[in-house]
Amino acid sequence: MKLYIKMAIVLTAISLLSAFALSQVFLWAAPIIQANKELEVRNSVFEVVEGAKNFDKYDDKDFRYFKVYSENDEIIGYAFINVGNGFQGKITVIAGVNSDLTIIKAIKVVDHSETPGLGDIIVKEWYTEQFKNLVVNPNIGWVKEGAQKKENEIYAKTGATISSKSVVAIL
Questions:
Q1: 111 with 84: CB under 8 angstroms?
Q2: Own/partner pairs for 59-68, CB < 8 Å, 24+ apart?
Q3: What is the 3-state secondary structure (H, E, C) of the chain?
Q4: CB of 49 closer than 8 Å to CB of 76
Q5: The pLDDT value given to residue 158
Q6: Which residues contact 56 (CB under 8 A, 6 or more apart)?
Q7: Which of 10, 28, 47, 142 is 20 to 30 Å from 78 at the Cα level?
Q8: Nearest to 81 by CA among 142, 37, 121, 119
Q9: Whose CA is closest to 158, among 121, 126, 123?
Q10: Residues in Cβ contact with 99 at an 8 Å cutoff, skipping those fewer than 6 apart
Q11: Digits of tens for pLDDT over the chain (171 positions)?
Q12: What pLDDT sits at residue 52?
């Protein structure tokens, strides 16, 4: 048998074994990854709604939200998970709002693939702090840094405006 045929057979066998091994690792890791994502969402609900002690989870086809309760089992707010497009991929944001849905209490970006050092400013504390007690009516907006902003606007970071605007659009 010619050398190139033997090499092709060996490389094919190695590729098949590697693909099988990789698929087994994926099958093993997938439930663990999913459980960690759920734990992060659970912890994020308590972060974005201050005073939260318990919550009920509601799943719709394209929408997931949580009714959040205080220690006395009173509704103190809601948390919403929204997904939208950023500059490099999907951004997943969880937002906490007060019980009458008029003020964002806090937000947390739980997943993104934005550019490190630039677009990833959306996870920095100085950026997410802008959303605390932000009025949602009329719609949330953004202005460039240095401009005068209203009570329903945040500052979009120069150089990362797509990421900044994307978070606003997701909310």
A1: no
A2: 68/96
A3: CCHHHHHHHHHHHHHHHHHHHHHHHHHHHHHHHHHHHHHHHHHHHHHHCCCCCEEEEEECCCCEEEEEECCCCCEEEEEEEEEEECCCCEEEEEEEEECCCCEEEEEEEEECCCCCCCHHHHHCHHHHHHHCCEECCCCCEEEECCCCCCCCEEEECCCCHHHHHHHHHHC
A4: yes
A5: 65
A6: 66, 67, 69
A7: 142
A8: 37
A9: 121
A10: 75, 76, 77, 78
A11: 688 899 999 999 999 999 999 999 999 999 999 999 889 888 988 988 888 888 988 888 778 899 999 888 899 999 999 888 887 788 888 999 988 888 889 999 888 877 777 667 777 888 888 888 888 887 888 777 777 777 777 777 666 667 777 887 888
A12: 85
Lookup: tokens for 27: 């099958």
Q: Which residue reads 């990362």 in tokens?
A: 160
